Amino acid sequence: MRASTIGGVNLLPEDQKRDIYTRLIPQELLDQFNIPPSFTDPEGRPLLELQCTAGSPDVAMSLYHRYGFPDPILYGHLTDTLTGQTHVLLYILNNPDSPRFDVDRLPDGAKTRFGTRRRNLEAEQAALEAGLAPGQVRKGLRMLPNAIPAFEEFVRSLGDEVYFVEPLYYHNAVIFERYGFTYQVGRRRMERIQAGFLPGGEFRALLDGSTPFRMPEAADSIRLRSWAIHDGIFGEPFTNITMYKHVGKSTGISTCAGCRW
After folding, report:
1. Does residue 253 register a pLDDT over 80?
2. Does the domain spanning 6-187+237-246 belong to CATH 1.10.533?
3. In the predicted structure, residue 252 carries a pLDDT above the cut 80
4. ∠ CA 64-69-73 to the nearest 5 degrees?
């Protein structure tokens, strides 16, 4: 019987689980870093880590370009919704050749959950100045156009035509919009954000340079808006946004029309 949920896949033998979950990896990523089908390096050491315990509705996957490297080139965390559909909690593609910024941990090593629980302000300012968006420890690989078809192959293999994502930051939501995702929860909030950064808007007036993350030029930039929101310009965190996509849908309508990156 074909597994129709992540929880169902997790009940399968290890080799079957790996075959199914590696469908989430874009072939272009494997080709770029010369990762073989065995997901091992020339010495036979593993480059792929899967956390997919039997009885769990979650899977976490880390793929490394080199054994022992501190950050994966791909990290994904997926779970089942209450109705048994796929919900993407986190999906990261890191460029291992770019500088690292420790926005995910404090100087004492304590984890920040990418700045959503605690913040390493010095690392965040350095990341901002280097052109990164909130939550990025390294530059991305710009492979979302390749990742989405891989996701959709995985979703279809489970017998579904719809899947869900939870954008961790404002810029994630805007990017997902451009690839055909629609809001299940949060569209009115996104429209309020857009209005608030327009001339005369409630948030534009708060871009007063009081912190490096609240400079006036953030009004018309997706990335810089995201930093201002991450910096607390709302007075509350960016949460309770859920989006979904029908498999095969290609484009969506942006709530940030006219904004540059």
Report:
1. no
2. no
3. no
4. 35
